[in-house]
Amino acid sequence: MYLQRRVRVKLGVFAVVSAIAVAVTVFGYIEVSNLLPGLGHYTVTVELSQAGGLYDGGNVTYRGTEVGRVKDVVVTTTGVDAVLSLRSDIDIPSDLDAEVHSQSAVGEQYVALLPRDGRSRPLREGDVIPLSRTSVPADINLLLGATNTALEAIPHDNLKTVIDESFVAIGGLGPELSRLVKGSTALAIETRDNLDSITTLIDQSHPVLDAQADTSGAIQQWAANLADITDQLQRQDTAVAGVLQHGGPAADQAQRLVERLQPTLPVVLANLVSVGEVAVTYRNDIEQLLVLFPQATAMMGGGIVPNLGTKQDYQGFYLDLNANVNLPPPCTTGYLPAQQQRAVSEVDSPDRPVGDLYCRVPQDSRLNVRGTRNIPCRTVPGKRAPTVKMCESNENYVPLNDGYNWKGDPNATSSGQAVPQLPPGSTPALHPGPPGPAPAPIAAAAYDPATGSYIGPDGRVYTQGDLAHGATEQTWQSMLMPPSGN
Fold first, then answer.
1. Cα–Cα dist 239/430, whole Å
2. Least packed by Cβ within 10 Å: which of 64, 214, 280, 288?
3. What is the pLDDT of residues 319-333, one digit of tens each?
4. Which candidate, 356, 313, 319, 361, places its Cα nearest to that of 336?
5. Cα(115)–Cα(87) distance, rounded to whole angstroms?
6. 402 to 330, 359, 362, 367, 413: CA distances (angstroms)
7. Residues paired with residue 73 on neighbouring β-strands, in sequence order
């Protein structure tokens, strides 16, 4: 059959267009790999407990991207095996979970592959995803049946009451509910922006929660004590109200008092700091005094009424003065000699000597056993010293003598120590200044008890008749008179 040239050209053009259309359809839309089984694909078996509505040709997704199709769904003795045909050009980790989901409420199930470890090896031909790594959605029929059963269990009258009361409760609260929803949305956005911090807080809250659990008993006790306090406040509501009402004026008066005492109060408080430091250092001694003080007070109270309720004429405090004069003798070592002591008639107030004056005999001497030299050092256990500076220094107490130098200078010593005693680490002044007046004569001298004669400081012999043996007894007035000499 002869065809015209124009017809042959048209048929050729039509054939070329048809070939291009077929090629686009096969390679671009249908894809050759879908037409030729096994080309560019590999198969993986997924073990399921049940089909869950899954069907042949269903989609398979990985990270939300379609990577294959469900090739077959086969019923087995233990459940269902779904054969997946996956694309070879996408590497899917083998450590993953396979879950069956629905794209809508009416079905369209698909398989979602969720990786656990993205660094595991890729899936290969013939791999099996075990039943422990798979899940299927709940049966929608069972869910609807359970929902229907729950709705039928609600009494219709009560449900109407709930709806009516809900309308009364939230009716007209549109703006407030809108602010609540907007606030919740803003809170959710802020939470998402600070997700890392919140996650860290939750992860690190375990030790805190464990501590709370371990101290549950203490927390319960604290709550019980708090309940007692609140009960007391409730019972004393009037008193609490009075405190709240009058507390402001009382605070104003206290402020005015502090302002009036402002010139002297800071000085007092500063001095109390030093007193507080001393009290802290001697806390144990103060506690011991506080413990013994009530007992001593009770003993004194018992001595005041020794004969109470008896027939004796005298009722009062029994006091026994056992006057053992000079047993033991008084301690004079460590004090100023008699010629340097001030007369009792002087009324001026000179500066105290530079140093310390106290009984400076051995610590085990029977003289003044409770003296300053035997004070325990609170900051250095086992050490005894007369001053705090000596307690805190490396120096130890050194006595002047044994305390029995009753003739002449009571401070006679070979150790070269100064009287008064200077603080540890201090040295005498290099230029002490001009010497003072000459010391008065020694006020004590030995006398002859037979005649009453003695030698005075000037070398002359004096006689005091009332000192001789057989002299008349002196009165205390005559003893204050100056002696008569010849």
1. 70
2. 64
3. 666 677 777 788 888
4. 356
5. 16
6. 13, 11, 6, 9, 10
7. 82
